[in-house]
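Dear U.,

Please find below the material for section 3 of the report. The protein was modelled together with S-adenosylmethionine; I have listed the sequence and SMILES used, followed by the predicted complex structure.
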Amino acid sequence: MSRAAVSAAGDSKRAPTDDVLPTGEAKRAAVKSMFDTIAPRYDLVNRLMTFRMDVGWRRRTVDALGLTPGSLVADIACGTGDLCRDLERAQMRPIGIDLSYGMLASARTQAPLLQGDALSLPIRTASVTGLTCGFALRNFVDLAPFFIEAARVMRRGGRIALVEVASPPNPVLAWGHGIYFGKVVPQIGALLSDRAAYRYLPKSVSYLPPVEDMLDTLRSAGFAHVERTLLSTGIAQLITATRA
Ligand SMILES: C[S@@+](CC[C@H](N)C(=O)[O-])C[C@H]1O[C@@H](n2cnc3c(N)ncnc32)[C@H](O)[C@@H]1O
Protein backbone atom coordinates (compact mmCIF):
# COMPACT_ATOMS: atom_id res chain seq x y z
CA MET A 1 0.00 0.00 0.00
CA SER A 2 2.93 2.33 0.46
CA ARG A 3 4.71 4.58 -2.00
CA ALA A 4 7.58 6.02 0.04
CA ALA A 5 10.13 4.93 2.56
CA VAL A 6 8.39 1.88 3.89
CA SER A 7 10.49 -1.16 4.76
CA ALA A 8 9.94 -4.37 2.85
CA ALA A 9 9.53 -6.71 5.77
CA GLY A 10 7.73 -6.26 9.03
CA ASP A 11 9.55 -8.98 10.88
CA SER A 12 11.45 -6.81 13.35
CA LYS A 13 9.92 -4.53 15.96
CA ARG A 14 11.17 -1.19 14.66
CA ALA A 15 10.58 2.09 16.44
CA PRO A 16 8.26 4.16 14.25
CA THR A 17 10.81 6.98 14.33
CA ASP A 18 13.28 5.20 12.08
CA ASP A 19 13.73 6.69 8.63
CA VAL A 20 12.53 3.42 7.15
CA LEU A 21 8.96 3.05 8.32
CA PRO A 22 7.84 -0.34 9.67
CA THR A 23 5.33 -2.57 7.90
CA GLY A 24 3.21 -5.59 8.79
CA GLU A 25 3.06 -6.78 12.39
CA ALA A 26 5.99 -4.50 13.32
CA LYS A 27 3.93 -1.48 12.23
CA ARG A 28 0.86 -2.66 14.14
CA ALA A 29 2.90 -3.14 17.35
CA ALA A 30 4.73 0.19 16.95
CA VAL A 31 1.51 2.13 16.28
CA LYS A 32 -0.26 0.57 19.27
CA SER A 33 2.62 1.34 21.60
CA MET A 34 2.97 4.89 20.24
CA PHE A 35 -0.70 5.75 20.81
CA ASP A 36 -0.59 4.19 24.29
CA THR A 37 2.25 6.60 25.05
CA ILE A 38 0.73 9.80 23.63
CA ALA A 39 -2.88 9.16 24.74
CA PRO A 40 -2.92 11.46 27.82
CA ARG A 41 -2.03 14.61 25.83
CA TYR A 42 -3.38 13.53 22.42
CA ASP A 43 -6.38 15.88 22.44
CA LEU A 44 -4.39 18.91 23.57
CA VAL A 45 -1.70 18.47 20.90
CA ASN A 46 -4.33 17.80 18.22
CA ARG A 47 -6.21 21.02 18.97
CA LEU A 48 -3.03 23.08 19.04
CA MET A 49 -1.41 21.68 15.91
CA THR A 50 -4.58 22.05 13.82
CA PHE A 51 -5.67 25.38 15.39
CA ARG A 52 -8.86 23.49 16.33
CA MET A 53 -9.66 22.82 12.67
CA ASP A 54 -9.84 19.10 13.51
CA VAL A 55 -13.04 19.82 15.45
CA GLY A 56 -14.76 21.17 12.32
CA TRP A 57 -13.42 18.36 10.14
CA ARG A 58 -14.96 15.73 12.41
CA ARG A 59 -18.32 17.55 12.42
CA ARG A 60 -18.22 17.60 8.60
CA THR A 61 -17.53 13.86 8.71
CA VAL A 62 -20.58 13.15 10.83
CA ASP A 63 -22.79 15.42 8.67
CA ALA A 64 -21.51 13.69 5.53
CA LEU A 65 -22.96 10.40 6.74
CA GLY A 66 -26.41 11.89 6.17
CA LEU A 67 -27.95 9.34 8.54
CA THR A 68 -31.02 9.75 10.71
CA PRO A 69 -30.99 9.97 14.53
CA GLY A 70 -30.83 6.55 16.13
CA SER A 71 -28.53 5.09 13.45
CA LEU A 72 -25.93 2.64 14.73
CA VAL A 73 -22.48 3.84 13.67
CA ALA A 74 -19.12 2.11 14.21
CA ASP A 75 -16.32 4.62 14.77
CA ILE A 76 -13.16 2.75 13.84
CA ALA A 77 -9.90 3.82 15.47
CA CYS A 78 -11.99 6.03 17.75
CA GLY A 79 -9.00 7.12 19.84
CA THR A 80 -10.14 9.39 22.65
CA GLY A 81 -13.71 9.43 21.34
CA ASP A 82 -14.00 12.77 19.53
CA LEU A 83 -16.03 11.36 16.63
CA CYS A 84 -18.12 9.28 19.03
CA ARG A 85 -19.07 12.48 20.86
CA ASP A 86 -19.99 14.21 17.60
CA LEU A 87 -22.10 11.20 16.61
CA GLU A 88 -23.81 11.31 20.00
CA ARG A 89 -24.48 15.03 19.51
CA ALA A 90 -26.15 14.15 16.21
CA GLN A 91 -28.27 11.64 18.17
CA MET A 92 -26.75 8.61 16.52
CA ARG A 93 -25.61 5.53 18.43
CA PRO A 94 -21.83 5.15 18.13
CA ILE A 95 -19.67 2.18 19.06
CA GLY A 96 -15.98 3.02 19.35
CA ILE A 97 -13.24 0.56 18.43
CA ASP A 98 -9.52 1.14 18.82
CA LEU A 99 -6.33 -0.88 18.96
CA SER A 100 -4.77 1.17 21.76
CA TYR A 101 -5.97 0.56 25.31
CA GLY A 102 -4.31 3.84 26.33
CA MET A 103 -6.42 5.82 23.87
CA LEU A 104 -9.62 4.05 24.98
CA ALA A 105 -8.75 4.67 28.63
CA SER A 106 -8.44 8.40 27.87
CA ALA A 107 -11.71 8.53 25.93
CA ARG A 108 -14.46 10.95 26.96
CA THR A 109 -17.67 9.52 25.52
CA GLN A 110 -20.76 7.65 26.64
CA ALA A 111 -20.42 5.27 23.68
CA PRO A 112 -19.58 1.62 24.27
CA LEU A 113 -15.89 1.07 23.51
CA LEU A 114 -14.13 -2.06 22.33
CA GLN A 115 -10.45 -2.81 21.93
CA GLY A 116 -9.89 -4.35 18.50
CA ASP A 117 -8.15 -4.15 15.16
CA ALA A 118 -9.73 -2.34 12.20
CA LEU A 119 -8.62 -5.20 9.98
CA SER A 120 -10.59 -7.75 11.98
CA LEU A 121 -13.52 -5.92 13.54
CA PRO A 122 -15.28 -7.34 16.61
CA ILE A 123 -18.68 -6.51 15.04
CA ARG A 124 -21.36 -8.75 13.52
CA THR A 125 -21.84 -8.85 9.74
CA ALA A 126 -24.36 -6.34 8.33
CA SER A 127 -25.02 -4.88 11.76
CA VAL A 128 -24.26 -1.15 11.44
CA THR A 129 -25.75 1.59 9.26
CA GLY A 130 -22.78 3.92 9.37
CA LEU A 131 -19.04 3.78 9.77
CA THR A 132 -16.60 6.60 10.49
CA CYS A 133 -12.83 6.66 10.78
CA GLY A 134 -10.82 9.72 11.76
CA PHE A 135 -7.13 10.25 10.92
CA ALA A 136 -6.24 6.58 11.14
CA LEU A 137 -6.07 5.17 7.59
CA ARG A 138 -2.32 5.76 7.42
CA ASN A 139 -1.83 3.85 10.65
CA PHE A 140 -3.36 0.59 9.41
CA VAL A 141 -1.12 -2.19 8.17
CA ASP A 142 -3.11 -2.30 4.91
CA LEU A 143 -6.17 -0.52 3.54
CA ALA A 144 -7.81 -3.19 1.36
CA PRO A 145 -8.57 -5.54 4.30
CA PHE A 146 -9.95 -2.58 6.27
CA PHE A 147 -12.34 -1.60 3.47
CA ILE A 148 -13.43 -5.24 3.12
CA GLU A 149 -14.10 -5.40 6.88
CA ALA A 150 -16.02 -2.11 6.69
CA ALA A 151 -18.17 -3.54 3.88
CA ARG A 152 -18.77 -6.72 5.87
CA VAL A 153 -20.08 -5.02 9.01
CA MET A 154 -22.29 -2.50 7.16
CA ARG A 155 -25.85 -2.93 5.98
CA ARG A 156 -26.63 -2.28 2.31
CA GLY A 157 -27.30 1.41 1.78
CA GLY A 158 -25.23 2.29 4.84
CA ARG A 159 -22.81 5.22 4.73
CA ILE A 160 -19.09 5.42 5.37
CA ALA A 161 -17.18 8.66 6.08
CA LEU A 162 -13.40 8.65 6.40
CA VAL A 163 -11.45 11.78 7.31
CA GLU A 164 -7.69 11.88 6.91
CA VAL A 165 -4.87 14.39 6.56
CA ALA A 166 -3.80 15.39 3.04
CA SER A 167 -1.44 17.66 1.19
CA PRO A 168 -2.94 20.73 -0.56
CA PRO A 169 -2.99 20.52 -4.39
CA ASN A 170 -1.67 24.10 -4.66
CA PRO A 171 2.15 23.76 -4.77
CA VAL A 172 2.81 26.89 -2.68
CA LEU A 173 0.37 25.77 0.00
CA ALA A 174 1.81 22.25 -0.19
CA TRP A 175 5.30 23.66 0.42
CA GLY A 176 4.17 25.70 3.44
CA HIS A 177 2.12 22.84 4.78
CA GLY A 178 5.09 20.47 4.33
CA ILE A 179 7.25 22.73 6.49
CA TYR A 180 4.55 23.13 9.12
CA PHE A 181 3.62 19.44 9.29
CA GLY A 182 7.17 18.15 8.91
CA LYS A 183 9.06 20.61 11.12
CA VAL A 184 6.73 22.60 13.40
CA VAL A 185 4.34 19.82 14.44
CA PRO A 186 7.20 17.58 15.68
CA GLN A 187 8.44 20.54 17.81
CA ILE A 188 4.98 21.07 19.32
CA GLY A 189 4.76 17.32 19.97
CA ALA A 190 8.22 17.24 21.55
CA LEU A 191 7.35 20.14 23.82
CA LEU A 192 4.02 18.83 25.02
CA SER A 193 4.07 15.10 24.48
CA ASP A 194 6.47 12.63 22.83
CA ARG A 195 9.15 13.69 20.34
CA ALA A 196 9.43 10.32 18.59
CA ALA A 197 5.69 10.00 18.02
CA TYR A 198 5.29 13.47 16.53
CA ARG A 199 8.30 12.91 14.27
CA TYR A 200 6.63 9.74 13.03
CA LEU A 201 3.17 11.21 12.43
CA PRO A 202 4.09 13.48 9.48
CA LYS A 203 6.17 10.70 7.96
CA SER A 204 3.29 8.25 8.23
CA VAL A 205 1.44 10.14 5.47
CA SER A 206 3.71 8.31 3.02
CA TYR A 207 1.81 5.11 3.85
CA LEU A 208 -1.27 6.49 2.08
CA PRO A 209 -1.59 5.15 -1.48
CA PRO A 210 -2.27 7.50 -4.41
CA VAL A 211 -5.81 8.88 -4.14
CA GLU A 212 -7.28 7.09 -7.16
CA ASP A 213 -5.88 3.74 -5.96
CA MET A 214 -7.44 4.31 -2.55
CA LEU A 215 -10.86 5.17 -4.04
CA ASP A 216 -10.68 2.16 -6.40
CA THR A 217 -9.87 -0.10 -3.46
CA LEU A 218 -12.96 1.22 -1.69
CA ARG A 219 -15.11 0.52 -4.79
CA SER A 220 -13.67 -2.99 -5.12
CA ALA A 221 -14.57 -3.68 -1.47
CA GLY A 222 -18.27 -3.08 -2.25
CA PHE A 223 -18.88 0.66 -1.99
CA ALA A 224 -20.62 2.92 -4.52
CA HIS A 225 -20.99 6.70 -4.88
CA VAL A 226 -17.39 7.13 -3.73
CA GLU A 227 -16.57 10.82 -3.31
CA ARG A 228 -13.57 12.74 -2.02
CA THR A 229 -13.81 16.31 -0.71
CA LEU A 230 -10.85 18.46 0.23
CA LEU A 231 -11.16 20.35 3.51
CA SER A 232 -9.43 23.61 4.49
CA THR A 233 -7.59 24.11 1.15
CA GLY A 234 -6.68 20.42 1.06
CA ILE A 235 -4.82 19.88 4.31
CA ALA A 236 -7.48 17.29 5.13
CA GLN A 237 -9.68 15.07 3.00
CA LEU A 238 -13.09 13.50 3.51
CA ILE A 239 -13.97 10.31 1.66
CA THR A 240 -17.59 9.19 1.63
CA ALA A 241 -19.34 6.24 0.04
CA THR A 242 -22.47 4.12 0.22
CA ARG A 243 -22.45 0.36 0.91
CA ALA A 244 -23.68 -1.16 -2.35
C1 LIG B 1 -4.51 9.79 14.91
S1 LIG B 1 -5.46 8.79 16.00
C2 LIG B 1 -7.13 9.26 15.61
C3 LIG B 1 -8.08 9.07 16.76
C4 LIG B 1 -9.49 9.57 16.51
N1 LIG B 1 -10.15 8.85 15.46
C5 LIG B 1 -9.51 11.06 16.21
O1 LIG B 1 -10.26 11.45 15.30
O2 LIG B 1 -8.84 11.81 16.90
C6 LIG B 1 -5.32 7.21 15.24
C7 LIG B 1 -5.97 6.11 16.06
O3 LIG B 1 -5.94 4.92 15.28
C8 LIG B 1 -5.79 3.84 16.18
N2 LIG B 1 -5.36 2.67 15.42
C9 LIG B 1 -4.21 2.53 14.75
N3 LIG B 1 -4.18 1.33 14.14
C10 LIG B 1 -5.34 0.71 14.43
C11 LIG B 1 -5.92 -0.53 14.06
N4 LIG B 1 -5.27 -1.40 13.29
N5 LIG B 1 -7.15 -0.83 14.51
C12 LIG B 1 -7.82 0.05 15.31
N6 LIG B 1 -7.32 1.24 15.69
C13 LIG B 1 -6.11 1.58 15.25
C14 LIG B 1 -4.77 4.37 17.16
O4 LIG B 1 -4.71 3.61 18.35
C15 LIG B 1 -5.27 5.79 17.36
O5 LIG B 1 -6.18 5.88 18.42
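For the text of the report, you could mention the following: The radius of gyration is 17 Å.

Regards,
Y.
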